[in-house]
């Protein structure tokens, strides 16, 4: 019984051999530990040299390659090129600390199976499992193609080398294909001269042709009948025919298949009595006669060669001598028919040679009558058809293998005629798309192809049957019956007849819908990450400017009376500055660069506390209902930010229902398993709390849904929205460790689902806020700020309040000043993000020079390395830019306390 880990990862039966392209042995061991922890045993080797990588690819076999993006003098893109040149199919997964939008897209384009970030290695086992599964499907696909080609080749050889003439026609008499033996019988140089001609042009007599077709309609199979034709040069030729009417194809065609054997020599022998003895003795067929009792009387040279008995040793013996004992039961019935004057023509039988070996023969038995018409004996003509029967059996086996391969293949398959209509499909393909085999036969393949892919698909197919290439491969979208789209990797190959002309095509389809969905999710996630970094950088720089603008505005307002015209103008400037600061706060929320005050929350309580306000907000024409699950798990998030999330979603829902409707807010516990996580790349499996906001409004098209979380994207009229509402929601949810997904259709409303991980902690106790005196002080403050305007404002605000200020523009000058300054320094006021050295690093170095010094951090934003990785904790004093001089003095006084 297979061992399956609790997280859903099925470990391989033996350790994976992994080659890690990594310049950090620690990171390589961490990746291996994560794989081992999911149940995937690994044997790994580590190198960061391209020469060693190239050499190891030639010497050893690996299951998976894990590559850091930036290596020593080369990158993962170089590794992909080396792997491609080696010709080996080994999944390569990029495992790196960070990966930009363009780099991620280029890696996928150049053949990377997947990528994972080093700070989110929980996805690595899933990525490895999926890459191995995709490799297995590729190998299965190649195996199916190889089996199909071999089956087709065996069929072609048996068809072409058959000693009998083999042909196929449609019911109206046009020849579809034939072999060289058929061409020889009719006196043509090659099968190409016969294909597409009507049988009337092949010198079938009208009576023979009409009679055969009429009998076929009733009997469906005609065996061992004689027919006279004329060769291309006009000479007669007698043949024995075996013709079958095949079952009606799904395209409505009736196909006739048959074989012809040239018996002209035998017919001539029968008609030319004067040369009978010569013909009989020179014939390759066995010709002999028996008495009425079955005693052999005559025996030609052909019989000697066929059965191995000389005439002297076989004459006088019963003909059952060379008939196997188990087949002698047929003799009595056949003798009875012969004695009544009936001939048995082309009666197939198994005979035994003198050496005990068995052969298959076609017998023509004719009664020998005396002048009175009494049957005195039997004449026998036997033709060795052993090779033909073997060929027929091989052909049947080949067709059966093809049928088994086709029907039981693990991928979708279809046979398509020259007009692009699938006339045969396997169960997997029908299950994929939901159509029956009859429905496939009535449709061209472009009819279940997505409109955007039809032109290219049809162009490639026309080029294929036109001989431009033997096969083509493309990713395309299939339309499923009843609606829905399936992405498929389709390979179409040409099948040719014995004359080298195309007969049909075989298409193989692998369902890659899940892979395409994940690629789109990765693309969007990388895009949002890049936009978030840009937004955070813009907000940081803008906050520095707003600190200067708003700060000097406040200082100026203190200089004028409230009714002075300058004071009125300054108030307008201050209000505009505050609105600008609000916009930057929203950008910081989107970029996940805010400093949050997370608490352990009960979302039910948050929703209940907001419900009264929400009802006033949405108006009377919208019905609000809540469905709050009991025993709801607790989450850790900033309560104010979560309230903003709910408010923004409710406002959006209200705007989507201008004529009223129904708004529902729902909470529940949700266990997100490995399968859900595989289909949603930003989700980590485990217990979550679901917060859903659903409306019955106008809904959104897919094109709109792809952009709704981007900053400044809005569908509202100009002046009615900034386009930052949903961007703010996205950033808050992501910074809180959660995920947000939207489900919407035009005219059917929208549902926003937020998943936040459950925490096993008690509720955060409420903190009592105390007012801080904003008056000045006499302490010495060291200010470290790289922005000149901000530094000047801080100096002016603090010096005017009695503080002594030491200002520097960076870490190096700050450390030098601390070492040289003789007096005490009570407080370090430092920016968080600066060139060369961050604020927390400056504080750590200053503390070694000035033990006991207090620290206040400030920033226009806080980057991932500071906030999320724990360098700046919730306990560390922090003031967010832009700030006013008054707010700064209050914060400093609170940090310094009574000192």
Q: Low-confidence stretches at least 5 residues in length (pLDDT < 50)?
A: 589-593, 862-871
What is the CATH T-level topology of the largest domain?
A: Heat Shock Protein 90
Measured between the Cα atoms of the first and last residue, the distance is 71 Å
The CATH architecture of the largest domain is: 2-Layer Sandwich
Counting helices, strands and paired strands, the structural category is alpha/beta
Write out the strand line-up for the largest beta sheet, numbering strands in chain order.
Answer: 2-1-3-6-7
The average pLDDT is 79
The CATH class of the largest domain turns out to be Alpha Beta
**How much beta, percentage-wise?**
15-25%
Radius of gyration: 44 Å
Q: Helical content, roughly?
A: 40-55%
Strand segment count:
34
What is the helix tally?
28
CATH superfamily of the largest domain: Histidine kinase-like ATPase, C-terminal domain
Q: Helices, strands, pairings?
A:
Layout: E1 16-21, H1 25-37, E2 42-47, H2 50-59, E3 64-67, E4 70-71, E5 74-75, H3 76-86, E6 92-96, H4 101-109, E7 114-117, H5 124-161, E8 165-170, E9 175-178, H6 180-186, H7 206-219, E10 221-230, E11 236-245, E12 255-262, H8 264-271, H9 276-282, E13 286-291, E14 296-299, H10 301-307, H11 311-314, H12 331-339, E15 344-352, E16 358-369, E17 375-384, H13 386-408, E18 412-416, E19 422-425, H14 427-433, H15 437-441, H16 451-465, E20 471-479, E21 485-496, E22 502-511, H17 513-557, H18 565-590, E23 599-601, H19 603-618, E24 622-628, E25 635-637, H20 639-655, E26 661-672, H21 674-679, E27 686-695, H22 702-705, H23 725-735, E28 739-744, E29 750-757, E30 780-784, H24 788-799, E31 804-808, H25 811-820, E32 827-831, H26 839-849, E33 854-859, H27 864-867, E34 878-880, H28 885-896
Parallel strand pairs: 1-2, 1-3, 3-6, 6-7, 24-26, 30-31, 30-32, 32-33, 33-34
Antiparallel strand pairs: 4-5, 8-9, 8-12, 10-11, 11-12, 13-14, 13-17, 15-16, 16-17, 18-19, 18-22, 20-21, 21-22, 23-25, 26-27, 27-29, 28-29
